[in-house]
């Protein structure tokens, strides 16, 4: 039986630890590691005291069942902490408390805090009141009845009240006497101290409770300043770390998370989708938490690094943007059990990534090839999460011939070669030759760069991933698109056939159609073949 509760952690950094280093560690390593355990933690909220008392910082995590905190899944987090975490924890005065939930009452207007945007949630007030039962035999029962029968109802009349919850010392705190903590959530603007609040704490029953049954051991007031998702995203505090210091670069023990501020802030980590797939991502650019975000979808068989050369230009030309890249499902692995990719699933992956990063909306989404088709599908499926898009070198509808071609490519990729390797290396050479303009094929560094990228794709992931291109047709939906878009194509893609195809369906987008920009002297990946030419094609839309 589930016994929900709270992991409640107060923290006071010692004088030798900078707040930027403290926050960067907690926001990018400690908190997201816990939020990745969605079966245990439903949220993670950080507060800062507004009452002038210490400890100044509080982290509160809602726990689905307190028994989970005794499992190896959770205890291993402490046992296998990184050297950075061990060192940082040594410079913070930490007190951890486990609380079992007893009672809860919330306003009809209450929305779970983790479902709010950062802007909506910032500044929410938390009042934390700890009560110690007196020695009377029925003190514990009296405290619970007072909260359930009177006090929460009285507090609900206070302007700005959102929720009250009563917790008691968890059964995990073996040998500890029973104590209570009440957590009261209020809007940023509230009636604390006003007439309704004074009435709630001045009733005859309240006075009797404190006289006979309970002692208020502490009352703290906090303001919410950070909400965790499962994905690390704090570029701001990372950007404040000295670039030449040891603290400016971190790599997790499992190698899946990397952060650095040398020479500029970058976060590389991953999310886990609802079907169990790991999706790596890279976040960089403007470190302002409120900066607009542009995201990039790579093509099938390539990685997020196919955008490297273009992003060097983009960062210089548009420094106001935060930049998000990720690897498609199929690049590294497939979920267990195997699931065939579809455009719907790929659009959902973007949505899940944005949720994990707590990004309510992208300013721009840019995709190429399968990434271009995914970009259009995302605009159709999640218009509320996208301001505008650029879809490159793709088709709005697949054909039987296309499906046959992909099946043949799977066969090539899986065929053993005479040298003992597998055919994905052969497929890489054939693919790059098919993709690139003849002029690009003379650029050996570009050819080798993309060829190596294609050859490194997981073969089984390719088998399931390419099926997103087998059977789809978005042409009927395109008229319904409410997100403005730009279409871009390399002049020589499919020897010019894709230019004709995209020119044929560009007018079907929304009410006004889309403009088609053509990048001369390029083929299927114009942003790789001629980054400057691609910038010239898209800059007015950025």
TrEMBL record:
InterPro entries: AB_hydrolase_1, AB_hydrolase_fold, AB_hydrolase_sf. Coiled coil: none annotated. GO terms for cellular component: membrane. It holds the Pfam family Abhydrolase_6. SUPFAM superfamilies: alpha/beta-Hydrolases. It comes from the Eukaryota. Residues 306-536 form the AB hydrolase-1 domain. This is AB hydrolase-1 domain-containing protein. It comes from Xylaria multiplex.
